[in-house]
Design goal:
Blueprint (H helix, E strand, L loop, with lengths): L1 E10 L10 E17 L3 E5 L3 E3 L9 H11 L8 E8 L9 H16 L6 H7 L1 H8 L5 H8 L2 E4 L6 E2 L6 E7 L6 H14 L1 H24 L2 H16 L6 H12 L4 E5 L6 E5 L3 H11 L5 E7 L7
Parallel strand pairs: 3-5
Antiparallel strand pairs: 1-2, 2-5, 2-6, 3-4, 6-7, 8-10, 8-11, 9-10
Helix pairs in contact: 1-2, 1-4, 2-5, 3-5, 6-7, 7-8, 9-10
The chain binds (R)-mevalonate.
The site of (R)-mevalonate has 16 residues, from helix 5 and helix 6.
Length: 309
């Protein structure tokens, strides 16, 4: 059974598409996948009730069929055929990296079925082709985090930089109930950048400075400072018209319930908010306060993993 986790972007969404760093963390919910030899290639994805063959298709599932063909094209043509079965445990369109986790889990399952050894980072890199089918111009942060996990700084074209956190980060995730398209949100921000390069460029640079400070605060285990930096990041992404009334309300409720800071995570325009708490106990209180306002809530305790720098 292969597993790939979702992710939360703690700092730097959108700026990371435009060559700035982002700081992200893997989460414990994700996608499981298995690949078993069959007469023909096929992908079943539950609980979506999707069952499709790879290739060009029309309508619902068209992107998935194309992405599946892209994943299979990573392997030699004379390989056996496979039925890949995926169990998706993350809401889609929520900013939690669902499509990337699905791609990474499928490629991991195919690797296992064919006895192919691949380092997690290499698996993250090859999964970018899958992500491109869905998001056009992905930075690569989602697929890299789905493959590697932990807490890390990611910058386009550079190796992932794992962060050794002094303390784990207890986060509450709350879904606004509004779904959004990463592809459309990335295009919307890119258009703003083209129209107003100076203003938006400065905003991206401001976000990059938050990433640098947050890296130090996470290494020091200073949750209060990390929370304050999250609030600042939220203010900057609001300046890019990425926040919504519902996301703002969720952030306010979380702060009033004792969170150190809160912000949207991922593409914005809907999807999820994350709030940083002092402890898992405190996170439970914040989650209870958020539950009446959210379509989905979860607590995730993100931890460092692997070698730290
Ligand atoms: C999506 O999880 C994060 C964005 O920055 C897009 C990307 O990095 O590809 C909005």
């Amino acid at each position: 059974m292969a597993f790939a986790g979702g992710k939360v972007i703690l700092f730097g969404e959108h700026a990371v598409v435009h060559q700035r760093p982002a700081l992200a963390a893997g989460i414990s919910i994700g996608v499981e996948a298995t690949a078993t030899e069959a007469d023909a290639d096929r992908l079943t994805a539950d609980p979506w009730g999707v069952d499709l063959a790879p290739g060009e298709a029309e309508g619902q599932g068209a992107d998935l069929a194309r992405a599946f063909a892209t994943a299979l094209a990573l392997y030699p043509g004379d390989r056996p055929r496979f039925h890949v079965h995926a169990k998706v445990g993350i809401p889609g369109g929520a900013g939690l990296g669902c499509s990337a986790a699905l791609g990474v889990a499928i490629i991991h399952a195919l690797d296992d079925a064919m006895g192919i050894e691949r380092e997690p980072e290499a698996r993250g890199e090859v999964s970018l082709a899958w992500e491109k089918v869905f998001h056009g111009n992905p930075s690569g942060v989602d697929n890299m985090m789905a493959a590697v996990g932990g807490i890390a700084v990611y910058r386009r074209g550079e190796p992932l930089e794992p962060i050794l956190a002094r303390k784990s980060l207890p986060l509450v995730i709350a879904h606004s109930g509004e779904s959004s398209s990463t592809k459309e949100m990335v295009s919307m921000v890119t258009r703003q950048y083209e129209r107003e390069p100076e203003r938006v460029g400065e905003l991206f640079d401001g976000i990059a400075a938050l990433v640098r400070n947050a890296k130090l605060a996470i290494k020091d285990g200073d949750h209060k400072a990390v929370g304050q930096l999250m609030d600042m990041n939220q203010a900057l992404v609001s300046g890019l018209m990425l926040s919504t009334e519902k996301l703002e309300r969720l952030c306010k409720v979380a702060r009033e319930a004792g969170a150190h800071g809160a912000k949207l995570t991922g593409a914005g325009g809907g999807g999820c908010m994350i709030a940083l708490c002092d402890s898992t106990e405190a996170a439970k209180d914040v989650e209870s306060a958020l539950a009446p306002h959210a379509s989905f809530t979860a607590i995730t305790e993100t931890r460092s993993r692997g070698r730290a720098q």
